[in-house]
Q: What sequence folds into this?
């Protein structure tokens, strides 16, 4: 296992459990305890975890795993969700995409749709995510609008008042929202308040809002609210979603698609 793959696995385990012991991690990843100790030390230097005697704990109470380490988590679910979300977008529409691993997969699903291979434009994509803009900019049939702002290294999203200048001047047909939490009572949320503010404005400028979220995000709360549940038209999630949670969203007026 490469160091990068090992770090991804360690951070995923840490986020899931909150605490990891050296011997426990070594056994699960089938590497030596000395290797895990070095990994923990190097990740601690990057402020991605906190070293403890014999192990490590997550860094802070509202831990946010950087995007580059999240790509492998629930990958198959995210790809199924992305394909379904992309199918809800019509040719010629203006689409807003927030940052995140699931919305990145939505961008990729849109890029390979045969009916979007040509047009003037086939789609207009508005995004505050640098990685999404970079991936789609090579598609000449897509018109790409980047919001501007200051880049967050954790999510590659542009945030701050500079983004407001662009979003205040445009309207969109649909906004696709990636979230870290979506609860019926508390709505959608992100870890960072600046990111949430830009995503909120993106939703406000769209005619309809689609939340693309795997089942692990549902029924959860996070620090910074993006929008209330009644602002969401459709939730696309995976088939592992708790049925009682799904019914709660449907009773609140949200159309739920499980894939």
A:
């Amino acid at each position: 296992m490469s160091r990068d793959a090992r770090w991804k696995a360690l951070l995923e385990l840490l986020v899931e459990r909150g605490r990891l012991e050296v011997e426990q991690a070594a056994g699960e990843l089938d590497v030596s305890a000395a290797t895990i100790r070095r990994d923990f030390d190097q990740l601690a230097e990057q402020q991605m975890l906190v070293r403890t005697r014999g192990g490590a704990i997550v860094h802070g109470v509202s831990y946010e795993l950087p995007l580059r380490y999240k790509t492998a988590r629930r990958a198959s679910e995210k790809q199924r969700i992305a394909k379904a979300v992309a199918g809800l977008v019509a040719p010629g529409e203006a689409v807003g995409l927030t940052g995140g691993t699931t919305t990145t997969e939505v961008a990729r699903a849109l890029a390979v749709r045969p009916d979007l291979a040509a047009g003037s434009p086939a789609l207009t994509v508005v995004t505050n995510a640098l990685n999404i803009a970079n991936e789609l900019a090579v598609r000449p049939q897509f018109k790409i609008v980047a919001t501007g702002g200051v880049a967050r290294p954790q999510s590659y999203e542009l945030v701050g008042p500079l983004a407001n200048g662009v979003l205040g001047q445009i309207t969109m047909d649909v906004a696709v929202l990636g979230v870290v939490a979506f609860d019926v009572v508390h709505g959608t949320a992100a870890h960072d308040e600046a990111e949430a503010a830009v995503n909120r404005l993106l939703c406000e400028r769209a005619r309809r809002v689609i939340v693309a979220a795997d089942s692990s995000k549902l029924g959860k709360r996070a620090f910074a609210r993006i929008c209330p549940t009644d602002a969401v038209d459709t939730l696309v999630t995976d088939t592992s979603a708790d049925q009682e949670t799904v019914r709660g969203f449907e009773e609140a007026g949200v159309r739920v698609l499980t894939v």
Notes: The mean pLDDT is 91. Residues 131 and 156 are 6 Å apart (CA to CA). DSSP finds nine helices and 15 strands in the chain.
